[in-house]
Design goal:
By secondary structure, the chain is mostly helical. It has one domain. Helices cover 65% and strands 0% of the residues. The longest helix has 28 residues, at 6-33.
Amino acid sequence: MNKSPKYSHVQLAFLGFVALLIGIVCMLDVTLVYGLPALTSISESATTGNDAGMLLPFALGCMFTFGISYVGYCKVERILTRVMAVGFLVVAMQICDSVYVVTERVGLLGLPPGVSHTLHVAGAVLGFGSMFIWIAFFFTRGVPNPTRQKLKRNYIYVICATLMASGIILFILGMFGVVGAYNVFIAEEFMLIPAGIACIVKSELVMKDKEQ
């Protein structure tokens, strides 16, 4: 594996803060600024028909840009982050089903709402699933003579990946109506907040090796 270049650490920190804040910011903007009911999912913010809908596509665009440009440590990792990027691009292109959707054709491809929703969910599962695999297996990869800080970081990655796995399961159940609607927003936060924390730790913005 190649040593990750310094700018990858900057990218990781940026992605971390986007993932950490996007759900909270979307919820606060929709409820406090526009006075709308609480979101059932972060994706619902893009269907509200007001300026709050601009936040999610912007965040997804940042995540897409990260995924296609991230160098990482090896070819497999680069492929995985590009798959993640494609998933989040699909989420940005086609909106989810929502009480705010009143037209017969929606999204960049002009699909019926039901088809758009299915494609949106598929993109989210692809994006979040790839992100989970990336964090669970590449962040924790073994290195010769790991430092004490590296071992601590690996412990955090395992906790974050476990929370993300729980969030993915709840997300899939929620998007198809198996559990309550608001559980989708909770599930998304269970995926995004741990992912954000893991990326910030991976960037070594915090918990940097003292030997370096």
